[in-house]
Amino acid sequence: MSSTIKTVAHAGAAGSLGIEVLKGLVQAGFDVRVLSRKAGKVPAAYANQVKEVVVNYDDPASLKSALDGVDAVVSTLGAPAVGGPQRALVDAAVSAGVQRFIPSNFGCDQQNPLTRQLPVFAEKVKTEDYLTEKAKSSSLSYTFVYNNLFLDWGFSHGSLANIKDRRVVLYNGGDLAISVTRLATVAKGVVGVLKNLDATRNHSVRIEDGKISFKQIAAIAKDALPGQWTITEADTDALKESSDQALKAGTVEGWVWFNYILQGGTNAKYGPAFENIDNNQLGLARLSDGELQALVKDIITQTARE
């Protein structure tokens, strides 16, 4: 068995995080196979630099064939594929003798007992447990990468602030400085794991660009884009209760899941302000408070122009 990772299979390369991870893998010099449900899903910028393999997640033979000769699997699959399809990929990785599996469990710290109970993470938790069991009886190892809330994505998609409507919500008072991470930093973290196999074997790692509070975000937003801003407050325990009641009534709309993510990503009980950071181990820089605040201002300004 190779002691280094050379060939990486990447599932879910077309999404926002997937594209950044694919870029990181290619730039790091790995031989990359992109696993696609349909041909032609590789982002155009990398079509000539990777090999695309069409797979059927309902066909174990198809998945195993795609992973023959692969050293590591990186998954950035989105919902609902993080459930059954991703676990089918785990089975194929075991059969093919893959060394390392990084599942699509990025985001909130799913080792926190409270976070593990949030319905939005149910399938991801099942996959983590599945990998843990498989690692006991096979040569496959795993690494779970947590980054809490995405930084750049959080502004472009409104989870950290709604730039278009000039609105910021102060969750749980807005004082807690939570971990935030750019998509590109997550990609570098994935590469760092694959280059540090022994240190990350069967472990979870926590990465961040830095920590910032929603009150700081509100102040930076007002400075970056002077004018009228709407600043409101919300209690994520109450938001979670609303989602719990909605699920009981059979409502599965986007806001239901988003409330759970806000609970895990901003409520102190759920560990969103990472205490033990693995940036150094993975070769990742961490921004100073001043650098992070300057970056946030730049992101807000750029988002407003788009």
From TrEMBL:
InterPro entries: NAD(P)-bd_dom_sf, NmrA-like, NmrA/Isoflavone_reductase-like. SUPFAM superfamilies: NAD(P)-binding Rossmann-fold domains. The keyword Oxidoreductase applies. Signal peptide: none annotated. It comes from the Eukaryota. Pfam families: NmrA (PF05368). This is NmrA-like domain-containing protein. It comes from Neonectria punicea.
